[in-house]
Structure formats: C-alpha cells, structure tokens
Amino acid sequence: MAKILISRDGVLEKTVQLTKERMTIGRRRDNDIVLEHQTVSGEHAAITTILDDSFLEDLQSTNGTFVNGHRVGKHFLQHGDTIKLARYRIEFVADGIRAISGISSVPVTLPAARIEVLNGSNAGRRVELNKPQTSLGRAGVQVVVINRTDAGYAAVHTEGDRIPLLNGNALAKLPQALADGDVLDLSGTQMAFRLN
C-alpha cells in the first residue's frame, strides 16, 4: 500500500497510508487528510489510487499544488515524488508491484513500444516509449500521458478540456491499457501505439 510522508518546516508531522480509492487533502475537518494551516485551501487536493497507480489532483486550490517544483492540475505519482501544498512538503512512497492471486511477482520484461504519427505534417514520426512516462499533446489544451509499468502500457488523459480519443472512444481520466495497433486521436492528430 502506498503512503505519504507529510512534513512542515523540515519536521515530519505524520505518515498516512493511502487506504481509500480517493483521499482528499485540505484544511477542513471533513477531509481524509487534514492540514491545519491558513495557506491550505478548505479542500486543496485529492489522491486517487487504483490498483498500484496513484494520481494527485489539485481541487482548484488558491495557492496551487506542486510536484517536483512544477505546478500541476493532475499528476501520475511515482515513487519519490515531492508534493508541495502551501507550507507542507509531502513525499510519495509507492508500495511496488503487488502479487496477483497469491503468486509471487516475477519481473516481466516488456516489449519495446512506440507511438507513430499517422497524419498531418508529422506523419511517419515515431516516439519511442522507453521512459516510465511519455507526455503527448499541448500543455493546457490536451495532454495524454502513456505510462510504462511492469504490467504494460496505459494511456490517461491528464490535462485540458478537449477529450482525446482511443479507438474512437473518449479517453478517460483513469488509465486505459494499450494494445498493439490502438489509435489515439489528439485534436485530429492520429497516432498508433505499436509494439516493436
């Protein structure tokens, strides 16, 4: 189970296990995680955890939510990420890969994959998916992140009001597994997911 370590002014105040699918963080008492400081919004942010993936979302806070020094709207959390909420520093600690059906997990080597642009001025361009996260799109308009984990590749819509498509259907704000030949559509630019 993932957890967060909450510090203020360099002093660790509490460790919180992410035990619920969605946990809110804020100054009000009805939040799952209460941070008592006037610079924290009533309902500041939320962490959503689905299986082994956790996402941080800013809830239109006054002072913003930052991860590793960058202001975020929504962010896929990775082990060691540092979240800054007002005067608080929060470290995200992942729990690793969980065993399935009592079988101990064995490291799986994923086949290499790439994104290939199918139309427009960049047709034929390829982006190798060799990092844990690859972002596609334009910040503030439409961003899709492809996550590479031991379980496979998954796409998630992380930013922007324009809804991207996966095989003609709206791509959700939750990770969707990718299969060889799947087509992403970002504002009319079509890209195919290919396993090498």
Describe the protein in words.
This protein is mainly beta and 196 residues long. It has two domains: 2-94, Sandwich (Tumour Suppressor Smad4); 113-195, Sandwich (Tumour Suppressor Smad4). The chain has strands spanning 3-8, 11-17, 22-26, 33-34, 45-50, 53-58, 65-67, 70-71, 74-76, 82-85, 88-93, 113-117, 126-128, 133-138, 142-149, 152-159, 165-166, 169-170, 176-177, 183-186, 189-195. The protein has a six-stranded antiparallel beta sheet, with no helix packed on it. This is FHA domain-containing protein. Residues 23-72 form the FHA domain. InterPro entries: Cell_Proc_Reg/RNA_Proc, FHA_dom, SMAD_FHA_dom_sf.
Topology:
Elements: E1 3-8, E2 11-17, E3 22-26, E4 33-34, E5 45-50, E6 53-58, E7 65-67, E8 70-71, E9 74-76, E10 82-85, E11 88-93, E12 113-117, E13 126-128, E14 133-138, E15 142-149, E16 152-159, E17 165-166, E18 169-170, E19 176-177, E20 183-186, E21 189-195
Parallel strand pairs: 3-4
Antiparallel strand pairs: 1-2, 1-11, 3-5, 5-6, 6-9, 7-8, 7-10, 10-11, 12-13, 12-21, 14-15, 15-16, 16-19, 17-18, 17-20, 20-21
